[in-house]
Structures are given as structure tokens and as C-alpha cells.
Amino acid sequence: MLLAFNKPYGVLCQFTDNSTPPRPTLAAYIREPGVYAAGRLDADSEGLLLLTDDGGLAHTLTDPRHKEPKTYWVQVEGVVTDDALRRLRDGVMLNDGPTLPAEAEPIEPPGLWPRDPPIRFRKNVPDSWLSLTLREGRNRQVRRMTAAVGLPTLRLVRVRIGGHALDGLAPGESRVIMSGGARGGAPRR
Q1: CATH label of the domain that carries residue 24
Q2: What is the residue range of 31's domain?
Q3: How far is Cα of residue 116 from the mean position of the Cα atoms in its chain?
Q4: Which residue numbers are catalytic?
Q5: Nearest to residue 121, comparing CAs of 170, 75, 72, 171?
Q6: pTM of the model
Q7: The domain that contains 120 carries what CATH number?
Q8: How far apart are the two ends of the chain, measured CA to CA in Å?
Q9: What is the pLDDT of residues 28-85, one digit of tens each?
Q10: CB-based contacts of 116, cutoff 8 Å, min separation 6
């Protein structure tokens, strides 16, 4: 089984949490037994998370050797410049080494759901959106890359992993993509 899930802001990419007080987890949203996240999104990131009960498929989706492209829409503080785009496209030096080149394009603000809590608004500080596609997955990589080019991330939404996209899933909804060879399915809340 392969399940697409639109992970809301603040939800952990695991089914249990032992902290006090407990934080929201996948258990509040995912009812299919035996699935686990193929990859992860930080609690403060939103968007597409794939879950599966197939270890081989999970490995294919997450192993860096397969370089499965992941596309993010990123709201940043500041104006996206040609220099920032060039640096992202060339690869950015981070404290754990250089990143692979990314696909980076400025985009118009996408028609997304409101985030709870909302993004901070600062009257005198502009913000911009960009589409960023990576083929590696380091810890908090998108946020570190945008910060390295002078554009701190305000909001981060993953919209695509390889050939799988959000395709209209609302936050907290999931859709079975594959079940025993079948594809498709209606969103589930």
C-alpha cells in the first residue's frame, strides 16, 4: 500500500510521542494499519508525506542513491534575487558540506490553505515564494539553503515526491495511491 497524506503544520511524522504534553502525531490522522512514513517532514513543515507498508518501496522513495526529486513551495523573508537563485541552482555550501544543485524558480504566492498558527507578518519586510526541487534529503536542508542565500524560510510546503503530488488533498487528508496494484482513491479525513 502507498498512501499520500497532507501533513498539517505541527504534526510529527511518527505515530507516538512520549513528550509531556504529547504533540500531535500521525496516529490522529492515519487509520490504515501497518503503514509507516517513507521519509519525513519536520513538525514545522507541511505537505506531502508518503506512507507505505512495503519496505522495498520505502527504500526506493527515501534512499539518496535513487535521487527521487522532492519539490517544495517555500515562502521566504526578503525578495528572491537572481543571485540567490543562481546560488541555489549551483549548490550551496552548508556546515555539513555542499548541497547538490537544486531546481529553483520564483513563483507567485500559491493558493494554499491558511496555516495555523499564521505566518508572522512584518509590514516593512517583504516576502517571496519560490519552488525548490532537491534530489537529496539532509536534515532541515531547505531551511538551511534558503538561509545561506539570505532568505530565511517562513513557510515550507512539500508538494511533490517523484511522480506523486498533493493533488488537492487538504491538510489532514490522505489518499490511497496504490493498494495491491490498484491506483487512485478518494481523499480520506
Answers
A1: 3.30.70.580
A2: 1-66+163-189
A3: 16
A4: 42
A5: 75
A6: 0.92
A7: 3.30.70.1560
A8: 17
A9: 999 999 999 998 899 999 999 999 999 888 888 887 777 789 999 999 999 999 999 9
A10: 8, 9
